[in-house]
Amino acid sequence: MDLQQWALVYILLAFIVANLPWLSRRRFFFGSSEPLKTLPWYLGEWFAMYVLMGLIGMGVERLLDGHNHGQGWEFYVIALCMFAVFAIPGFLWRFNIVPMLHRS
Fold this sequence. Notes:
By secondary structure, the chain is an all-alpha fold. The protein has one domain (3-103). It has four helices and no strands. It has helices at residues 3-23, 39-65, 73-86, 88-103. The protein is elongated, with a radius of gyration of 16 Å. The termini are far apart.
């Protein structure tokens, strides 16, 4: 696989991973579902997924290029904002669509 294909796969994986915390009521997918997760718990899981994707990205960069390029704080803020945009469908599902379906 060339670099462009790796980048597309990584972006698709980041989109999927950004939505995972919102799709499960279990804590980190393995814990109990009681008590119910609150918004801070969802956000904590989401941030843990952001860190995980960052580590995966650094590993792929080291694999493909032989070393990691230095990044400033701006890079990480932009990556966090992109990860937040990727998570919008899962957030809307959990807090808008699911409650609406349970009301009917």
